[in-house]
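Q: Predict the assembly, please.
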Amino acid sequence: MRQTISEKIISQHTGQPVKAGEIAIVRVDGVMATDATAPFAIKAFRQMGGKKLWDAERVSLVIDHAAPAPNETVANLHKLMREFAAEMGCRLYDVGAGICHQLMVENAHVRPGDLFLGADSHSPTYGAVNAFGIGVGSTDLAGTMLTGKTWLKVPHTIQIRLEGEPGRNVTAKDVVLFLVRQIGSEGANYQAIEFTGEAVRGMSLASRMVLANMSSEMGAKAGLVDPTGLELWYPFEPVFSDSGAEYVRALTFDVSGLRPQIAKPHSPENVVPIDEVLGTKIHYAFIGSCTNTRLEDLHAAARVLKGRKLNGTRLVIAPASKNVFDDALRDGTIQTLSEAGAVFITSGCGPCVGSHLGVPGDGEVVLSSTNRNFPGRMGNPKAQVFLASPAVVAASAMVGEITEPDVVEQI
Amino acid sequence: MTPSPATHVYLIDNIDTDRIIPGKYTKTLDTSALAAHVLEDLDPEFARKVRPGDILVAGSNFGCGSSREQAPIALKAAGVSVVIARSFARIFYRNAINIGLPVVEVEQHNIQPGDSVSVDLPNGLVINHARGETYRAAPMPRQMMNILNAGGLVNYLLQQGDYV
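A: Predicted assembly structure:
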C-alpha cells in the first residue's frame, strides 16, 4: 500500500494499514494542554471517573496563555493545574517556560513518527518534526488522558510542493501567508497538508515550524513537512510518504519571485504582497507567538534593528521560550533589540490571544508576527491587525509604517 | 402555551471561536458566565434574545480559529439546542459533539432570517417550515453519533470505559 505520511503514522498507531477516509481508534504517544484548555480537561477527566493518567510521562501541561496570571481567577486556574500535575505525576511547564508548541519540540516530547494530541489549535506545528499532531478540545484530551487512545478519521492529504528559493528577506512566514491566500481559510478543512519541494528541504527546523503552524489557518487537521533535510539533536527514524501515495490535491508553487506578504485585517487569508500596504501607519508592533518567535526570528529582527532606534512606535517581543530568551541573551540579540527600543515580556502567548498583556486600543493598527487577526483576537475588536514576518515587523516598527527590511537596511 | 423554538440566522461565513466567545471571557470554569457573552461581538443582542431550545443557523466554516471548547459550551449554556451551518471547522465540530451540542452540516440550505426551522437529528433532516423545504444533512461518522447519543464524551466514557 502506498501511503502518505499521515496514513503511515496512523497505521502504525492502530496496528493495521488504514487509508484516507477510514475511521481508526489509535494509540496516542503524548498529549499537551495549556492554561486555556487544561482546567476544562481536568474537570472532564474527573467527571469521567479518572483516578490516574494512562501514562503520566506522556502528559504535559503548560502555563502560557496568561502567564504570569493577570488576576486571581486565572491564578487559581494555574493553581489547579499545578495541584493536578503534582497529584498525577505529570509534567508541568510553569510561568515563563515558554509557549506550549515550542516546549514540546524543544524538549523532544514529540518526535518523528509520533501521534500527538494538543489541546490547542496550533498543534499541527508538530508536523515540522515529522509527527502527526492534531488539535483537540479539552474533553477530547481528557478522554485520552484516561485511555491513552482516541478515535479519528484518517485525513486525505493535500500535497504542496514549493520550488525555487525565496529571496533574502522572504521567509517561511511570507511563504505560508501566501499559501493561506491560495488555499483559503477552509481550503484544507478536515485534510492534512504535506509540504515538500526544494524550498522546503533546505529549511531549518524553525522555518518548518512556521509552515506547519499556519496550516491550521487553512483549516488543516495536520501539517506534515517532508523530513528530507530535517536535522535534530537526537537520533530518529523519519517517516516519508511513499512515491505513488494518493493525494486529494497536488499543488506546486515557485517561491523564487515571492515578495514579503502581509495579511490585512480581519482574516489570515486576506493576504497581499507588501507592496499593496507599504506606508500604512502602525501604532504597535508585536513579535511573538508559536508561529514566529524563535532564535531565528529574533536574529532576523536584530539584523534589521542593529545600531538603529525605533521612531517611537512600540515594539513588544515575547520570546518563544526561556531557552530561546537565554540563547538570545548570550549571543547579544536581546541587547541589540533592547537598545533599539524593543521591550520584552514573558515567554508565552501574551498579546497574540488577547486575554492578557498588550491589548491594542480602539482604531489602533497593529503589525504582528502571529497567526491570526480575526476581529477581537488581540482583545479589542476595534483594532486593525496586520500579520507579517518578524523582519518586516521590526523594520516597520522602526519607521512607524509598513515597510520592507531591505529599505530600512539602506538607511 | 410554550413558545416554539426561535431560529437565529446569521448567514455569515468564518464566524470564528473568538466571535462566538471572546478569549477574554474564557478564563473561568463557570459556564453560566459564558452564556452572558456568547456571540456578543457579532450581535450584542443575541445573549439577551436567545431562549432554551432555540436554533442557530450560520454560514460556512462556523467555529474556525481556536480549539477552545468554551465556544460550543457558551452556545449550549445559552440554550442553543442545535447549530446548523453550511460547514463547520473541524475542531469546533468535534468539540460540539463531545460536549453534547448537536451540530448539523447542510451545505445547500435556503434558510433566511425569519424562517422557522426544525431538526430531525436521528434522520439527519432539517425542515424549513417557512419555505416548505427539507434539507439533508451530511452524514456523521458512527463513532461521533455514539458519543452524541450518549450525551457527550464524558457520558460515553463513563458508560463504555474506553473507546469501542
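The radius of gyration of chain A is 20 Å. The mean pLDDT of chain A is 96.
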